[in-house]
């Protein structure tokens, strides 16, 4: 493998050292690209070194010193990625922050981390920092990438990125030893130093700052590169939040370790189109992205001509029979191979091209469970999509699926160098070189999470199946019991429902209650399309959600899930008794979801107490009015009367009869 | 950080030179007097709003400025040149661009092509050259495309670059139309109700773009708008028309306090 080992004890155990190495080894290879004014601009590793060096020395001139905390806020831009290395080369610590957080959310992280400098994307972020001015005492300078709209601002402590680089270049020109000094400082960096602090979005309580060392990140990155045989020829597209550990590992650490090229899309709205142009060879996306892609394809196929439709469905059938076996290198007959080959030319190839996945070598999904149907669809097309299980505290990798051992409902075997054990209460614990140093300024939380022997509590409940694959069922603290002691794993039930394209989000209740009830959010795209085709008119999300026919459809889905649950001995008792369809989409701006789109259960339980009571007291209707937050932060009220429906439950015996 | 906060949005009246001077303009269609003896000026770098109730003559005024209507009386001085009767293309060539109350785009063409069409005045090579597509013609096309891409980037419409505008929602079409007007690199930009029919969020986006055009490119802007909140926030000076007459002229706060303006908008009891 070209991206030699960069773990502890080798010469390149930090990002700045790797940059120097890559600039030597791959000096003419592209390191990063950005689509600007409709054209892909690229920088080679040699050029990146130049940019980073100039910026680092500029920061030094501005007063950045070892140990300072520097916030990085914005979408995936080359300059923001360079900032990581520049900051690290000075011994300071970069802290990426979620760019879509509203000012108040940002305030906590920035003040907790005592951020002294901030490097941000544009006016939007600068404005947020200006509103927070009073609270951020440590913040001295703000540097921005895009000057649009900022011309008339007071520039006493506000600098364009180029100006800082110019400052650095001047320092380089004025002092013959500047470059050598910089490289000497890099050489003095150690693998065990803190490389980055990543604030976890946290489903409960305040975000915590996870400190990861260079060793944590780089050993994990090198292992992952080796696991999937990734080298300097890979192309990836960087579109997930820079503050998220996944992007940090895939688009920064693994790219530096292997020397491959990272592509930054033109804007968040053009990712699909940009991906098609780049055709990444290594791709990560949460299940939601794969679901969306599939929904879009299916919706478009509905509008296609008769012949195309027939061809699509016929060859999709062939792919379901053959594709996955081919991918797993199992035995497949000659005729089937030929049919699949023809399908590749007629259907799969063009389809993969449309999705921008025609060069894909390996793809991963994680974060949530993926629908088995969706997972199989992609694999049947010959895309090597796999699942992994990870956490910020582990530098991502805890377990991953090796080639040829892919199941839709497991998260694979322990990743290289990772030990996993299951606690008595069912919680998953792990130990690995990627295990974080600690939470920043929060020793108490560190002690709660990490044992003396280095085992980390994941907070997830799971078990190993007969083949040694890990299965995650839910958050350990969310796994509860009904009053009759039946096991209740809300996420497990929610995921089963969410696999229906009509259902976007589900919240299940049942802990210490006599039955299971759920809130359901419909998927506007999918249900809206169905409504359009069935001549059902609606003016708003609320109206569509309350439509009797929509309720009818959702009820059949819930019944289906109950049937499934009835077949699993451990879960049969937790079938769904009643449900309602919510009048608004759960939203991160209203605090109902985390920034990574995970449901905040307890918050929702509190906010919608009235609805939960109605679910359990047998009423058929419930009134609710809720406060909603618009994108610009203003608030409004939304009220509605919601229907509640009972659903048929199935006995295990009944199911057996039906089967006979 | 303290110094940074001071000036988020400066919109002080720019005491620039006069760019456009409207002098005693009167316009009538047969017996209907659309504009009666109106005079005002627009200074370089400012955002000038023209407001008034329905039928006050606002759009007629814009049409006079860009040469679509020819006034019976009065003169217009633009960038030092005085004229009365000028044709729309001459007005465009002298640096006046506009958008329309009802979107007037080429529906079947993509966003990009629509914006490039705004570059027509900057295309010097002839039809034959462009057909050969070599040398100067090619260089020119690259320059024009670059300018169009800058505008696309500026207006944040990259994702609809290749979409036929007929398929776009109304708010985006309005933005494309603004893009096409900007492509002409005008000295004076006339916006006829840029926010008509938009929801609140779209209005806020559009307001931001108008302010950005003004500050980034230094373009002088004259706009007609009905939403008073928008007018008060955006403009440096406001001229108020009613039944073709000018009844007020000044900063937003001056105009807001003007009794004639209040009467015109709220009506007076007799």
Adjacency order of strands in the biggest sheet of chain A: 4-3-5-6-7
H/E element order of chain B: EEEHEEHEHHHHEHEHEEHH
Number of strands of chain B: 10
Strand content of chain A: 15-25%
- Terminal CA distance of chain B: 57 Å
Oligomeric state of shown chains: heterodimer
| Proportion of residues in helical segments of chain A | 25-40%
Largest sheet of chain B: 6 strands, mixed
Textual characterization of the structure:
- The complex is a heterodimer of chains A (660) and B (270).
- Chain A has 22 helices and 28 strands.
- In chain A, a hairpin with a 4-residue loop joins strand 14 and strand 15.
- Helix content of chain A is 40%, strand content 22%.
- Chain A is globular.
- Chain A has three domains: 15-284, Rossmann fold (3-Layer(aba) Sandwich), CATH 3.40.50.12780; 287-433 and 456-474, no CATH class; 478-659, GMP Synthetase, Chain A, domain 3 (2-Layer Sandwich).
- The longest helix of chain A has 22 residues, at 306-327.
- With 660 residues, chain A is of the alpha/beta class.
- In chain B, a hairpin with a 2-residue loop joins strand 1 (18-29) and strand 2.
- Chain B folds into two domains: 17-95 and 186-265, P-loop containing nucleotide triphosphate hydrolases (Rossmann fold); 108-179, no CATH class.
- In chain B, the strands form two sheets. A six-stranded mixed sheet of chain B has the order 6-7-8-3-9-10, with helices on both faces. In chain B, strands 2-1-4-5 form a four-stranded antiparallel sheet, with helices on one face.
- In chain B, helix 3 (111-117) packs parallel to helix 6 (170-183) and helix 5 (136-154) crosses helix 6 (170-183).
- Chain B has helices at residues 58-65, 88-93, 111-117, 127-132, 136-154, 170-183, 200-217, 228-234, 252-257, 259-266, and strands at residues 18-29, 32-43, 47-51, 73-78, 81-83, 96-99, 188-192, 220-224, 237-242, 245-250.
- Chain B is of the alpha/beta class.
- At the A-B interface, helix 5 of A face helix 5 and helix 7 of B.
